[in-house]
Amino acid sequence: MTPAPRPDAPVALALSPHLDDAVFSCGGTLARLAGAGWRVVVATLFAASVPDPTGFALACQTDKGLGPEVDYMALRRDEDAAALAALGAEPVWLPFREAPHRGYGSAPALFGAPLASDAIGPVLATAIGDLCRRWRPRLLLAPQAVGGHVDHVRAIEAIDGAAPGVPTAWWRDFPYVLRGQDPAEPFRDRFARLPPVEAALAPADREAKRSACRAYASQLGFQFGGPDGLDAMLERAGPTERFRGAALP
Ligand SMILES: [Zn+2]
Question: Taking the CA of residue 147 as centre, how many other CA atoms within 13 Å lie in the half-sphere pointing to its CB?
């Protein structure tokens, strides 16, 4: 059990598009920072409940065995709270809607070009600026949008728009980074210009990450075919988390 951080602890703020991305992609690093006395905050950008979803948005929960009466995002926020507790981190949930509720009406659309009608960018940038003023992070962690999910793309655009001026370590998005030979990387050139950073994980931090990932129970079947598939994917990812940008402490 990680002790609570001191009130004057430096803050690491992870900007996670969805409820699971930061933990899947760099949960071992988050555990390591918490263990080293940092206050680790994971802000999930697209965490809003949406009442009475329909169409593709509804299918995104019913295909996981969750009926229309279930508050799918509330369930996932509970999973996130449990996951972050396993890492010694704490959640913040922003009130923005995931892409299926912003006009992206199919699975391919989630990985296609952002829609001109999707005007989330400026409000998201303002919210990220507010987060940075509130938490005064010494380090940001954020996605590279490997895989090209439109919510990850919008997150990067918004971070750039907010220009928080905080050293940022940009993570390789798991599990997309292990899908196929050459996953989409819409920001490949931009991140190739930044120095590569590697975090070698101690066994305890890997185990904390595994426990945290398992807490996202509603996503495991869809993403990995179940908990065993998650374990296999984490094994393939190995003991190193890779980033571009700011050095890690
Ligand atoms: Zn995501």
Answer: 21
Rounded to 5°, angle at Cα 109 from 174 and 54: 105
Q: How confident is the model at residue 209 (pLDDT cuts 50, 70, 90)?
A: very high
Peptide bond between residue 175 and the one before it cis (omega within 30 degrees of 0): yes
Q: List all residues 6 or more positions away from 64 whose beta carbon is below 8 Å from its beta carbon.
A: 218, 219, 221, 222
Q: 4 pLDDT exceeds 90?
A: no
C-beta of residue 241 within 8 angstroms of C-beta of residue 199 = yes
Q: How far is the CA of 38 from the centre of ligand 1 (A)?
A: 24
Distance in Å, CA 35 to ligand 1 centroid: 25
> In this predicted structure, what is the pLDDT of residue 145?
98
pLDDT band at 1 (very low <50, low <70, confident <90, very high): low
pLDDT band per the 50, 70, 90 thresholds, residue 124: very high
DSSP characters over 143-185: E--TT--HHHHHHHHHHHHH-----EEEEPPTTGGGSSSS---
Q: By residue range, what is the domain housing residue 76?
A: 11-245
Question: What's the predicted TM-score (pTM) here?
Answer: 0.97
Q: Does 1 map to a domain?
A: no
CA of 13 to the centre of ligand 1 (A): 17
CATH assignment of the domain containing 199: 3.40.50.10320
| Tally of structural domains, the chain | 1
Report yes or no on 137 lying in a domain.
Answer: yes
